[in-house]
Amino acid sequence: MSLDEMNAEDGSVREPYARVAQWLATVSPEQLERRRVEAELFYRRGGITFAVYGDAQGEERIIPYDIIPRILSTQEWSKLAAGLEQRVKALNAYLRDIYGPQDILKAGIVPPDLVWRNPAFRPEMCGVEAPHGIYVHIGGIDIVRVDEEEFYVLEDNARTPSGVSYMLGGREISIRLMPELFRSHRVAPIENYPNELLATLRSVAPRGTMSEPTIALLTPGIHNSAFYEHSFLADGMGVELVEGVDLFVRDDVVYMRTTEGPKRVDVIYRRIDDDFIDPLVFRPDSALGVPGLYGAYVAGNVTVANAMGTGAADDKVIYSYVPDFVRFYLGEKPILKNVQTWRCRDPEDLRYVLDHLAELVVKEVHGSGGYGMLVGPHATKDQRADFAERLKVHPENYIAQPTLALSTCPTFVSNGVAPRHVDLRPFVLTGADGVRIVPGGLTRVALRDGSLVVNSSQGGGTKDTWVIEC
Amino acid sequence: MLSRTADSLFWFSRYVERADYLARVLEATIRLSSLPIRREDAENEWASALATAGCRADFDALYDWVSPAKVTRFLAFSKRNPTSIRNCLRIARRNARQVRTALTAEMWDTINTAWLELNKLDFDNMDASAMARFLEWVKEISLRVDGSGYRTMLRNDAYWFARLGIFVERADNTARILDVKYHVLLPEHVVVGGGLDYSQWAAILRAVSALTAYHHVYHESLKPMRIADLMLLNPKMPRSVASCYGAICANLDSLAEAYGRQGEAQRMARSMHNKLENARIEQIFETGLHEFCETVIAENVRLGAAISEQYLV
């Protein structure tokens, strides 16, 4: 049985949901449906869309939005927030270490080959000091609940996590559609996110930047699945939304081409992957990036957020060591739990995984977006046998975890209101002047009955997430 | 402001303006073809609609002969005509999406909603009245884009580039329609009588929505020289070439002032504006209306290139 976040097992309604439950009892399915249609129209008209790669039909799709909010109490949130801050600090410390003194390898905590053979590890970043020592300026930490007490981290996203525009868009639409609920709750605001992001980016400008730092958001362009988000954030911060062709590097300084001639850029919030960011250093066939950007970074003339090479901290094997990072670098006890993880590279773990395939979820170490995974209990015998063969050939490419009974929230579906599985992605901002987290995050919901896959590329939807005083 | 942003704003406006112009040309042509004129003349009207839209060559590459249905389809919504109304709106919306942050929410909403509505239209089954509604709708879109820009945009470089796009495109359109139709305005034009001359002249004015304006300005029946005067030189008529150049100069001057620098674009625009201010229509008829229009079109193309060189790349 998975945790139902609204209804307790004894039939009572949990306190944070008290008034939403009353409200749900008074609105008819027709009223809910009308609001759902209105919400869809809002997204469509606003062009709040995403693209699914390889899908010719849906060049621009909207993410289904469920109007019933997901609710956390301030007590739950403050514990979670403290855990998030601790986790991201540990990730930054780890990156500072592996691109610097490598103490954690010397201490024998992480096997060196996990660092060296990791494709997301960038040797080019070794010995390069990140401005203000920060690598992960924007972190998206995926959180799940299985019981009332604990929050578990499912995944760390330290590269270019997306989804924050859906968090903010969802709030706008729910304020518009359900003003009565906002009047009866004290919902912590989140609309200051772009402002906090701007403050974070300003704080990490290279030391010695004269006057106001110039900040730009680097996007791969309108065909990128998250282009709406890029333009939304650039707009919200009042910074230029640039593509690679708008930037050039001269004498290790980055400039953008403007109607008044070249203008120096100090901080780049990039939403382009490492591989594509500088063809002189990474993939030479990339037309999206900026030749010479790496050189400008090494020279200390520009801050790139997130730094290059942060992927070395967020694959699914490294994940299993993050609690160790917390202890090793911060000397603290981890506040957030990790999901138990078997590393298939370890022969003993592999044997266990092969023996228990029917109960486990097996994931590719470097996979993302819900692709290339086996959900044991939902797979056929043949699929499992097939996967076992792949596991034996390249055990180092896989990890396994128990099939979690993810918590559920009431969700409006075709036959009324029913529980659906959810996760949560809060966004953690790290600047030279501290960590900022707006209360809440993006709740993703698996709209299909029984499904545990919440990814938007696989039919997941979103919910507004409320942190309220009870 | 990013050069690419300025470029997208400029072209966003140009394409909306061009869609509007194409809708007017089509309306005027449909109206003309309802008159009792000879069949060859009717065909000529459709051929000249293609010429004023500047896409005769593209049309000939696809079809062997001109028919009203083909031309209408081609100009209004053919996917294979790079500047059909449908493609103009598509490209305008693409430019807008590229620079969403430089547009106001109202402008984005207008063009995005238009694009969504456009995609719902059943182009394969469009009868005459549906076509009339479609053309009416296109003109409304350009009014809304224009109005939302005017009412909501900050008066800074983004606004000036967007306005420049409108007026450079409009000057080109007005000069082009006059250039294609100049022969019906010339004295050697054979008077066919029976009110048909009037209708042909009126059609030209309708294409630039200036028929009513004509009567207000001149208080007399349609005279070819006056029509040319209204479209080329009259500073009060918002689609006249002179009036467009007044606006082009004003917007370029605002940019020059904000950036603290004058350039080739400002000089070219001023020289053209002076020329139009000092010209007399009688003289233009003496030296050749056609030649004058050709010069205006060519100069306008050069101005577009100068703006691009100076700001957009």
State the helix count of chain A. 14
Radius of gyration of chain A: 22 Å
The profile of the biggest β sheet of chain B is: none
Span from first to last CA of chain B? Answer: 12 Å
Q: How much strand of chain A?
A: 15-25%
Distance separating the two termini of chain A = 26 Å
Low-confidence stretches of chain B: none
For the biggest β-sheet of chain A, the strand order reads 1-21-20-17-16
Number of domains of chain A: 1
The percent of residues in helical segments of chain B reads: over 70%
Helix/strand structural class of chain B: mainly alpha
Beta-strand portion of chain B reads under 5%
Overview of the structural elements:
- The complex is a heterodimer of chains A (470) and B (313).
- Chain A is of the alpha+beta class and 470 residues long.
- Chain A has one domain.
- Chain A has 14 helices and 21 strands.
- Chain A has helices spanning 18-26, 29-46, 74-98, 103-106, 112-116, 164-177, 179-184, 193-203, 227-237, 274-277, 293-298, 322-330, 347-355, 381-393, and strands at 65-73, 138-145, 151-157, 215-218, 240-242, 247-250, 253-258, 261-264, 267-270, 303-305, 337-338, 342-343, 360-364, 374-375, 398-402, 408-413, 416-425, 427-431, 434-437, 442-446, 460-468.
- A five-stranded mixed β-sheet of chain A has the order 1-21-20-17-16.
- In chain A, strand 18 and strand 19 (434-437) form a beta hairpin.
- In chain A, helix 3 (74-98) crosses helix 12 and helix 8 packs across helix 9 (227-237).
- With 313 residues, chain B is mostly helical.
- Chain B starts with a helix and ends with a helix.
- Classes of the chains: A alpha+beta (470), B mainly alpha (313).
- Chain A binds chain B through residues 44-47, 222, 227, 231, 234-235, 240-243, 245-246, 256-260, and chain B through 1-6, 94, 97-98, 100-101, 108-109, 112-113, 116, 157, 161, 255, 259, 311-313.
